[in-house]
Amino acid sequence: MPGPAIQAEEHERVTTRPAAVVVLAAGEGTRMKSSTPKVLHELAGRSLVGHAVAAVQELEPDHLTVVIGHGRDQVAAHLGQTPGVATVVQEQQLGTGHAVQVALGALPDLDGVVVVTYGDVPLLTGATLHELVDAHTADANAVTVLTADVADPTGYGRILRDDEGAVRGIVEHKDASAEVRAITEINSGIYAFDAAVLRSALGQLTTDNSQGELYLTDVLGIARSEGRRVGAFVTDDPWQTEGVNDRVQLATMTRELNRRVTERWMRAGVTMVDPATTWIDATVTLEQDVVLRPGVQLHGSTHVGAGAEVGPDSTLRDVTVGADASVVRSHLVGAEVAASASVGPFSYLRPGAVIDERAKAGAFVEIKASSVGEGAKVPHLSYVGDATIGAGVNIGAGTIVANYDGVAKHHTTVGRHTFVGSDSVLVAPVELADGSYVAAGSTVTAGTEPGELAVARARQRNVDGWVARRRAGTATAEAAHAAQQRAGDDHVEGESV
Ligand code: UD1
Ligand code: CA
């Protein structure tokens, strides 16, 4: 069992739990130029909407609703695997205000805080959402918007403030005067609302704007005009408010997210020789004193135990690596590498490969659905499939387990401390007993009993004079002749002494 993974420090939180979180994800995402809905594009091992859901789940809301529209079937199917997430379809994308109307329409009457976020803002963290809700409750606001000061605010809604600095409202870029466009504080599109104020203000939205949409942003001005408290929580980390609209932004966000993930693990005690070429999914867990060499990619549910070394140039997906194990220049999927085991260079471990403690899968070795027992070795140029290799076994170079007869796969067992000579073929199903031997170059089709040597190859036959007769005049024939002369001379000299 792997030990507890090191985690970023968790603080005791007393954040008000929202009555609902609404994630907006109905938009088309035309600029992705993709047959895959935008929010299903992936970075760091999760879809865009998966990142959104993971962040808002940290708020532990009573309801979590994702508003879907474009690519609804695919998005709904994708989210169907996530417990606690409901989807609601917005048939036509009539604006962000309309999207939230649709979401609330599908929910029971709510009391308390409603948080709204987007499905395409992958760097937003649960911690920032906690801070937003904390500020919202601490200031007793009716609406609190997450804002950021950015160098280039083009395209974003701008935050209007009065002389005291209180938030007056939001103006969309397309509706803004030159004066308003000079404002650099932008609307992230992420908010905490009082449920009752939100519901009432949504009922008052109009399409009286340049895009003819129902703007969620207008809720702030409406609430304020009704004398409600409207506030802003300014983040000093604008990355967390940035959305993904095309594949260039997807790559930029992927790199930044990876920078954050690698930095978090380094601070938690993991050595990375080159974090820029080390790619770690958000779902991966590592223990202290892991060493990751350049060109390592860790994906999915991969876990690496204390003191283990991975890399250079290795890809691991859904793999467990035990303490002090080593994986060098290899590709592993769904495999388990136990403590102090070693893999590579140039191994390919496929689902169900289990390399037990201190065992070895060496150079140019492929292993599938097989266990390699404690201290056993498959050191060179082998294929092992559907096999149970006992503790202390040595599998000679070039050995192949022939597990497939063209119709079905069969199992092979190699007993404890059995020695399989180089270049053997073990034709499954076959069972080699504990403590037996297979002679090099054997094609093994029948099992052994303990202590037996299996020799399964044609006996060698040497044909005298064949080269002189059949290859006369070649360099080989000359070499043979010269060697025979020397042997003759030696023989004569030997005799004369
Ligand atoms: C919106 C904000 C803007 C803010 C910006 C931040 C409004 C009117 N404007 O602008 O102030 O600075 O986000 O990125 O809210 N969506 C739906 N259904 C719809 C419309 C949108 O689900 O009918 C979803 C989209 O999929 C997207 C999000 O809402 O995830 C934002 O929509 P988008 O059209 O990109 O809004 P912006 O014009 O960027
Ligand atoms: Ca947008």
Automatic annotation (TrEMBL):
Q: What class of enzyme is it?
A: transferase
Q: Which domain of life is it from?
A: Bacteria
A GO biological-process term: regulation of cell shape
Q: Which UniProt keywords apply?
A: Acyltransferase, Cell shape, Cell wall biogenesis/degradation, Cytoplasm, Magnesium, Metal-binding, Multifunctional enzyme, Nucleotidyltransferase, Peptidoglycan synthesis, Repeat, Transferase
Localization per record: Cytoplasm
Task: Tell me its EC number(s), please.
Answer: 2.7.7.23, 2.3.1.157
Record's cofactor remark = Binds 1 Mg(2+) ion per subunit.
Q: Which stretches make up the MobA-like NTP transferase domain?
A: 21-161
List the active-site residues.
380
Q: Name one GO cellular component term.
A: cytoplasm
The entry's protein name is: Bifunctional protein GlmU
The organism's taxonomy opens as: Bacteria, Bacillati, Actinomycetota, Actinomycetes, Jiangellales
Gene name of the record: glmU
